Amino acid sequence: MLLVLALLSAGACIGGGDDGPTPLDDRYKAFLAAVGYVGDDPSNPPALGTQFPCSITVALQPASPQPTLRPVLANCIWQVEPQGNLFIATFNESWRCDDFAANSIKYPACVPPIGFHEWQYQVDIRQGKVDEISSKGQFAPDMRN
């Protein structure tokens, strides 16, 4: 009987009452800052650390007879890791080379089956500062660079 009462009282302490909204942890704050930095809506972010389908808009050359924008279906993922007092937020998008492959002097060729591009951002949540620190992969479909 004493054990059951102890477990019941521990459960009430763990689950707690309604103390209002849970404060965001620093890792998630860094994620929201990076999402806003790249121009996406931080009030409606994708799941952190989970791959999600995304559609990337590709701008074609002005002389192209095709429309200037066309979607490329891709998979995207955000990841955030602490690095000392800062955080490194990584955004990766991957797509089928058959859906998008372009040659650019700045980027290596898309070698089938999958192309990718990855951006890394250094986030200082204390100062509210986000800086792009690296960009690598194949030709960037959404031309962020």
Overview of this protein structure:
- This protein has 145 residues and is of the alpha+beta class.
- It has two helices and five strands.
- The longest helix is centred in the first third of the chain and has 14 residues, at 2-15.
- It starts with a helix and ends in an 8-residue tail after the last strand.
Which runs of at least 5 residues are low in confidence (pLDDT < 50)? 1-17, 140-145
What summary fits the major beta sheet?
5 strands, antiparallel
Order of helices and strands: HHEEEEE
Class computed from helices, strands and strand pairing: alpha+beta
> What is the number of strand segments?
5
Mean pLDDT: 77
Helix content: 10-25%
Beta-strand percentage range: 35-45%
Helix tally?
A: 2
Spatial sequence of strands, sheet with the most strands: 1-2-3-4-5
Radius of gyration: 21 Å
Gross morphology is elongated
Distance between the termini: 66 Å
Summarize, please.
This protein is an alpha+beta fold. The chain is built from two helices and five strands; from the N terminus they run ααβββββ.
Q: What keywords describe this structure?
A:
single chain; alpha+beta; five-stranded antiparallel beta sheet; 2 helices; 5 strands; 18% helix
Give the arrangement of secondary structure elements:
Blueprint: H1 2-15, H2 26-37, E1 52-59, E2 69-83, E3 86-96, E4 114-124, E5 129-137
Antiparallel strand pairs: 1-2, 2-3, 3-4, 4-5
